[in-house]
Design brief:
Layout (H helix, E strand, L loop, with lengths): L1 H12 L2 H15 L1 H27 L4 H14 L9 H17 L2 H7 L15 E4 L7 E2 L6 E11 L3 E2 L10 E3 L8 E6 L8 H5 L1 E10 L5 E9 L2 E6 L1 E2 L2 E4 L1 H24 L7 H24 L4 H32 L7
Helix pairs in contact: 1-2, 2-10, 3-4, 3-10, 8-9, 8-10
């Protein structure tokens, strides 16, 4: 479904990079009310923090009474301490769906080689296995998966047919996949859905472009007829890792925009009374989180398109934070909320 949505947005924008940006804006706009709720909850937490601390200190020897008093206090001030977490919880499935979409065979076949601005491929990770396409062999790792890429040509006894359509999942692997061992493919006769029965009977061979899903290497594989199936065998070699600078730039942009988001949130709340320990913790998290994120994205293979989504999402978050906090500040000034809560 996510791939289909990206296709639709690509048809509208003319670019899969712009499609991802459009998807980001759509998602964040849909979550705008929850963003308001989150920032309202954060500001309320900061305003209520001194009184919360008093309750915690007063009943620290009696956890049950402390919890009851806190619940009564939250109810009195109509405050839900979990409200700030909801937008993050909702965004996680969206992130997972987008990640799954950009590494899926469907997206790789459709737009894996799409570029955008300085990004060479939207499906590339920071460290990907490099393989030379159309050199007659695959650079593979154990367990690699393969898909039919684009061109399929069939040879009959008396002619050739180009752009033949195959059934989904028509390509099958015989045996195991391991570097140095030929990978063997097979395609059943009834998978050639655009051919008539008579043409299927006359097939002698086929040329099929096959792509390694992991490293995006493409080879033009020659299949031969054996009974009611087409078979092929392709040599394989050990892959070499390749470092992608464009993806590193995206990782750094994500860390910078995340750092900026933390700074904006702290700046917009500077006039709100806040517990010193909480303020210090926020400052520490704002400095540590970008470093942690860089480390995580260096070690975890995140596609460039997902990183683009996260960068745009952070930029949207910065704009949203400034706008909403200004509105909340106006509300609080009118109501005199920034006075000490009793």
């Amino acid at each position: 479904m996510t791939v289909e949505l990206l296709k639709l947005l690509n048809n509208i924008t003319g670019s899969y990079g712009l499609a991802i940006i459009a998807l980001t804006i759509i998602v964040r706009a849909a979550l705008w009310p929850l963003g308001v709720s989150q920032q309202r909850s954060m500001r309320a937490m900061q305003l209520l923090q001194p009184k919360i601390k008093i309750i915690q200190e007063r009943y620290k020897s009696d956890p049950q009474t402390m919890q009851r008093k806190l619940m009564e206090f939250y109810k009195e001030h109509k405050f839900n301490p979990m409200a700030g977490c909801l937008p993050l919880l909702i965004q996680m499935p969206i992130f997972i769906l987008l990640y799954a979409a950009l590494i899926s065979p469907q997206f790789i076949q459709e737009a894996g080689n799409s570029n955008f601005l300085f990004i060479k491929r939207l499906d590339t990770t920071l460290r990907g296995s490099a393989g030379i396409s159309y050199d007659g062999s695959f650079s593979i790792s154990s367990g690699d998966k393969f898909v039919i890429y684009k061109k399929v040509k069939v040879f009959l006894a008396d002619k050739e047919i180009n752009d033949v359509k195959l059934e989904k999942n028509a390509l099958q692997i015989q045996g195991t996949v391991a570097p140095g061992k030929p990978v063997e493919f097979k395609i059943k006769d009834d998978s050639f859905k655009s051919l008539s029965f008579d043409e299927v009977d006359k097939m002698t061979a086929a040329e099929v472009e096959i792509q390694d899903v992991k490293n995006r290497e493409v080879e033009n594989v020659k299949f031969e007829r054996r009974g009611d199936i087409m078979i092929a065998s392709v040599p394989t070699v050990q892959p070499q890792s390749q470092f992608h600078t464009d993806v590193l730039i995206l990782v750094l942009l994500f860390a910078i925009t995340m750092f900026a988001t933390q700074k904006v949130m702290m700046a917009t709340n500077k006039n709100v009374q806040q517990d010193p320990m909480q303020a210090q913790m926020q400052k520490m998290m704002g400095n540590i989180m970008p470093v942690f994120i860089i480390f995580m994205f260096v070690t975890v293979p995140i596609p460039a398109g997902v990183l683009l989504y996260l960068v745009i999402s952070n930029i949207f978050q910065i704009i949203q934070t400034i706008f909403i906090n200004r509105q909340l500040q106006i509300e609080e000034d009118k109501k005199g909320i920034n006075q000490e809560i009793k």
